[in-house]
Design brief:
The protein is built from 13 helices and 15 strands. It is an alpha/beta fold.
Length: 400
């Protein structure tokens, strides 16, 4: 049966124009004042004009009820399914840069052989059918030999087809040769931090006398020339003035504008004057994304708080620190950005009740997976939804 998606978030501006964001498929739709009023007035989908109905269907905002129910249950099952296991491995705290925006401590600490063996033992005991492994640092590529050795052993035991792997990197070492090596061992997702072009008086972000920004940008260009399939997220930090960011987007637009293997994320650097739960992408980001049409599509993470779900809001997740500490997120997560699930009883209660309560149709379920009650921001579901609707309103500023 046809219905409005349960995961539509809709808000109106002062002119009664509407914007809808679907938290399940991450699509955005702007509606005129007349269309916004039509949505308000039409209690039944059959009352909508054919043009508006088709718009909503195309964006997945009108769906088949059984299909959507199946999709969301698969999404929830994936979070806690014993056959799926997620590892975030900090293989080293070494880094060749000292970026101002980076809160990560840096040292020569590197994951040792016994720690890798311990990880393999966990996997052997859990016997998952699917594995996702993400590499983090420091700069993970500074100890690529250990990554390569581990991934090869894992592939022999579980098969490449059952392992998904990605790497977080500043991109300066992501040369074509490094990309080839990554792809050869099954790492085909790259999250690349494109640092600042601002002058660094201490030269902590310089390589061979040149700002690392240009090394990374060059490697992104060379990555775009690769004929192989991969996914890459380029994280641009919003710590510069508009003109500087504009030139960065112009360069990215030229390099990867029509390459759908890439996704752009404009990341707002934390501000001491704003609580974390009030942080959002600045209006600048909306202006930039709308200025460059070939970048302005569903690949763009404009609504970070809505688009990104925490991978640690699942039972089968493990974080491995560079010192070899193995942390099951359900017991302890020290990085607040990775979630706040530290109460097993509350977590189990929430998960047990979830399929039998109204949360199954909550518009933010694909983001929080029913875990708002233990999230560190201490916002209720209603407060969180209000916050997200306020975020949506910012899209009106530069929608044209």
């Amino acid at each position: 049966m046809e219905k409005y998606s349960s995961f539509n978030l809709i808000t109106y501006n002062d002119n009664q124009e509407a914007v809808i964001f679907n938290t399940l498929n991450k699509k955005v739709l702007f509606l005129s004042k007349e269309e916004g009023q039509e949505i308000k007035d039409a209690s039944l989908i059959s009352s909508l004009s054919p043009e508006l109905r088709n718009k909503l269907i195309k964006k997945g905002m009108i769906v088949d009820s059984l299909d959507e129910d199946k999709s969301v249950r698969l999404l929830l099952d994936k979070q806690d399914h014993p056959d799926y296991f997620y590892f975030l491995i900090f293989n080293t705290l070494q880094c060749n840069l000292r970026c101002e925006y980076c809160a990560q401590e840096h040292s020569k600490v590197t994951l040792d052989k016994s720690s890798y063996e311990a990880i393999l033992k966990i996997i052997e005991n859990k016997k998952p059918k699917r594995l996702r492994i993400d590499w983090y640092g420091g700069e993970p590529l500074m100890d690529f030999h250990s990554i390569s050795s581990f991934m090869k052993k894992l592939s022999c035991s579980y098969g490449r087809e059952n392992i998904s792997s990605g790497i977080f990197t500043n991109g300066t070492l992501l040369t074509p040769k490094a990309v080839e090596k990554c792809l050869n061992i099954g790492i085909d997702r790259f999250l690349i931090s494109l640092g600042s072009k601002k002058d660094d008086k201490n030269k902590k972000t310089y390589i061979n006398g040149q700002n690392a920004f240009y090394h990374t940008l060059n490697n992104i260009h060379r990555l775009s020339l690769s004929p192989y399939p991969f996914k890459a997220v380029i994280k641009v930090f919003d710590d510069e003035d508009f003109n500087s960011l504009d030139s960065t987007f112009a360069a990215l637009n030229h390099i990867i504008g029509n390459d759908h293997r890439f996704l752009i994320s404009l990341f707002e650097t934390p501000s001491k004057t704003k609580p974390k739960q009030e942080m959002a992408l600045s209006n600048t980001s909306y202006a930039l994304f709308n200025k460059y049409p070939s970048l302005n599509d569903e690949r763009i993470m404009r609504l970070t708080k809505l688009s990104l779900s925490c991978p640690f809001k699942r039972r089968n997740s493990v974080m491995v620190s560079p010192t070899g500490e193995i942390i099951e997120c359900i017991h302890k997560i020290t990085f607040s950005a990775f979630g706040g699930l530290d109460n097993l009883e509350v977590y189990n209660k929430g998960k047990k009740n979830l399929p039998f309560c109204n949360n199954m149709s909550c518009p933010i379920l694909p983001v929080c997976f029913g875990s708002r009650c233990v999230d560190e921001s201490d916002l209720s579901c209603e407060e969180f939804i209000t916050l997200q609707r306020n975020e949506l309103k910012k899209l009106f500023i530069y929608k044209d």
